[in-house]
């Protein structure tokens, strides 16, 4: 969510900052103007249930429904259940809640408008999906909400926040909306400065966070409208430490997201999309010290591979008052870096591509996935030329790039939060972008009505990375049934339906694909763990002087293991149809040896890489244990698929 109203937070940290002689992590923007303006007309829409069928999955850069038709996330954030208290003063005083709106830990507006009316208004906006934030604290809250918090929905009286969340989820699904659950905060405190909600494990263990996600996935497994799990919001620095992407420590967001995704898809609900947001902030926002918004840039060299290769969606947030190296703060924590709203139209477009949209636009890479901009927004009362131009330029980019998006926020109180698309007064009267006069309506309508890809999406080759940097990455559910097939070694296996096609000479990286062969594995769970040369036929020495772990005839590589830098085993699976037996040796001990099109991308950044061609399979790994060698892969045996 936008890091507004954070000056109170910054003032409260003044003593700490003086002690540290630096500013904290990403803290916020100036207060937004409170006076609402009358908005203009936006397009109406037919119920989303008429045009899509759950569950959702991915094909390259697109999200598709169960029919294989493109489902573009045209979303908005219905906030409130994540909490609204700003962290100081009495929680009972509305003045101590964001924009003066005490949400009572439930979606905003239920005190003013009946649920059916709210949903009808959502449809009028043209959206088809809702990002629905919640907090871990909400899951455990046992007190019922005050009757006044659901005054317009008396059927919800006497219920806990989670029970009301249940009712909202169910109502949204019945009305045709896709629902993406979003773990926004740990506590029910307004996000997003240094507030105790910086990381998924701020104030709680990673294990508890993952268990909570399994609980939520199971709870809504029978709600077909619930299509996604947005794992955590705006991972960022606390006062002392940065999050990272791949270091293997307690602050490793890459690893935590991988762990949560695996548990959700195996123990919770295998149908859910997994939404992983990039890192929102690292470093200390002081001129001369390192600081930035990494967003999705780390995925270029280290991307996620899920047990279902067609469930990954990446996300990022963009607000005009933040910037590539600007936290969004004014005063303490403000630097001289440009904000996004300071960039020209062309500069903004380049930054958006570099920070996020390369993931979707670079087709045929290990990181290729749909990108969902799950937060962006601006106030109806905004009068600044630069912020207005930024919003128009941003929505134009989304329209031109056929992007998936979610506006923040959807619902607010009249006279309180002018950023909301829809605002309701205490009597339930609506104002907002559906009415005349809101300057945002023109860019919004352009975004909602621009040409887009619709209908069937053709299947495309899938490429996924394997990384054994800090432990196992066995992404095959079949192989998990075998247990530990190489005790004591770091093990990796491709997701079911994919085969191993490339390896890095060092660093334990691999590349999986289904190009040229859709699910080549024979039915059943048979596999072969190869730890010696018994399957190298007489006269078939394809890497003279090197140790060769070769698959049996009519089997192909799906995984590998290593001990330190040395190859420990090759993992092979039987083929569904006969495989080719003629092949070639692909050496990569002294340089890269990959197809000319470099399909799959740089899956082992900084290391030499070997890769079979798209119409080949890998049948063996060669390495040497001579003095001075680390024992990493040196060559692949590549053979024609048929």
Automatic annotation (TrEMBL):
A GO BP term here is: polysaccharide catabolic process
Q: Which SUPFAM superfamilies match?
A: (Trans)glycosidases
Family indicated by similarity:
Belongs to the glycosyl hydrolase 5 (cellulase A) family.
Bias (Low complexity) = 32-49
Keywords for this protein = Glycosidase, Hydrolase, Signal
Keyword match Hydrolase: yes
In the record, what terms sit under GO molecular function?
Answer: hydrolase activity, hydrolyzing O-glycosyl compounds
Q: Which protein is depicted?
A: Glycoside hydrolase family 5
Q: According to the UniProt entry, where is the signal peptide?
A: 1-29
Occurrences of domain Glycoside hydrolase family (ranges): 115-408
Region: Disordered; residue ranges are: 32-53, 84-104
Q: Which domain of life is it from?
A: Bacteria
PROSITE patterns associated with the record:
GLYCOSYL_HYDROL_F5, TAT
Q: Which InterPro entries match?
A: GH, Glyco_hydro_5, Glyco_hydro_5_CS, TAT_signal
Record Pfam families: Cellulase
């Amino acid at each position: 969510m936008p890091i507004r109203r954070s000056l109170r937070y910054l003032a409260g940290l003044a003593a700490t900052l003086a002690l540290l002689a630096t500013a904290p992590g990403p803290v916020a923007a100036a207060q937004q103007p409170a006076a609402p303006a009358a908005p203009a007309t936006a397009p109406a829409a037919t119920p989303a249930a008429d045009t899509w069928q759950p569950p959702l999955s991915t094909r390259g850069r697109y999200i598709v429904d169960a029919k294989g038709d493109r489902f573009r996330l045209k979303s908005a954030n219905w906030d409130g259940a994540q909490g609204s208290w700003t962290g100081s003063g009495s929680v009972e005083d509305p003045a101590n809640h964001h924009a003066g709106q005490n949400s009572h830990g439930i979606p905003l507006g239920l005190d003013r408008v009946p649920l059916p009316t709210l949903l009808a208004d959502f449809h009028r906006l043209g959206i088809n999906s809702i990002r629905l934030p919640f907090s871990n604290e909400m899951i455990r809250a046992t007190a019922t909400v005050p009757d006044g918090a659901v005054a317009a929905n008396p059927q919800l009286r006497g219920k806990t926040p989670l029970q009301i969340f249940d009712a909202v989820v169910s109502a949204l699904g019945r009305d045709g909306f896709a629902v993406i659950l979003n773990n926004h905060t740990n506590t029910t405190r307004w996000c997003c400065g240094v507030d105790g909600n910086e990381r998924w494990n701020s104030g709680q263990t990673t294990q508890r966070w993952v268990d909570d996600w399994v609980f939520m996935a199971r709870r809504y497994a029978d709600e077909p409208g619930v299509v996604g799990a947005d794992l955590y919001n705006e991972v960022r620095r606390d006062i002392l430490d940065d999050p990272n992407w791949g270091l293997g420590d307690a602050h490793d967001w890459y690893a935590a997201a991988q762990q949560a995704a695996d548990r959700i898809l195996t123990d919770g609900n295998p149908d859910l999309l997994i939404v992983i947001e990039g890192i929102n902030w690292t470093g200390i926002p002081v001129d001369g010290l390192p600081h930035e918004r990494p967003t999705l840039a780390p995925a270029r060299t280290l991307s996620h591979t899920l047990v279902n290769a067609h469930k990954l969606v990446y996300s990022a947030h963009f607000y005009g008052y933040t910037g590539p190296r600007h936290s969004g703060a004014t005063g303490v924590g403000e630097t001289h870096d440009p904000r996004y709203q300071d960039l020209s139209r062309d500069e903004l477009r380049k930054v958006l591509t570099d920070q996020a949209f390369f993931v979707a636009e670079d087709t045929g890479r290990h990181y290729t996935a749909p990108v969902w901009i799950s937060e962006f927004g601006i106030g109806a009362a905004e009068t600044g030329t630069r912020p207005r131009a930024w919003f128009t330029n941003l929505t134009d980019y989304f329209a031109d790039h056929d992007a998936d998006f979610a506006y923040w926020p959807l619902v607010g109180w009249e006279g309180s939060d002018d950023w909301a698309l829809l605002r309701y007064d205490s009597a339930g009267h609506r104002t907002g972008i559906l009415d005349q006069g809101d300057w945002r309506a023109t860019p919004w309508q352009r975004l909602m009505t621009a040409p887009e890809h619709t209908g069937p999406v053709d299947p495309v080759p899938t490429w996924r990375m394997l990384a054994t940097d800090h432990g196992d990455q066995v992404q095959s559910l079949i192989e998990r049934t075998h247990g530990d097939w190489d005790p004591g070694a770091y093990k990796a296996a491709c997701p079911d339906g994919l085969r191993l096609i490339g390896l890095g000479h060092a660093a334990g990286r691999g590349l999986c694909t289904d190009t040229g062969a859709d699910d080549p594995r024979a039915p059943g769970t048979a596999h072969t763990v190869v730890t010696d040369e018994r399957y190298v036929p007489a006269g078939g020495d394809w890497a003279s002087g090197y140790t060769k772990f070769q698959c049996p005839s009519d089997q192909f590589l799906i995984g590998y293991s290593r001990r330190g830098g040395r190859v420990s085993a090759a993992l092979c699976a039987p083929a569904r149809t006969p495989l080719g037996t003629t092949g070639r040796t692909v050496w990569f001990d002294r340089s890269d040896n990959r197809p000319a099109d470099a399909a799959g991308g740089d899956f082992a950044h900084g290391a030499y890489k070997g890769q079979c061609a798209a119409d080949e399979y890998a049948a063996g790994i060669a390495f040497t244990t001579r003095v001075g060698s680390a024992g990493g892969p040196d060559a692949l045996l590549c053979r024609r698929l048929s």
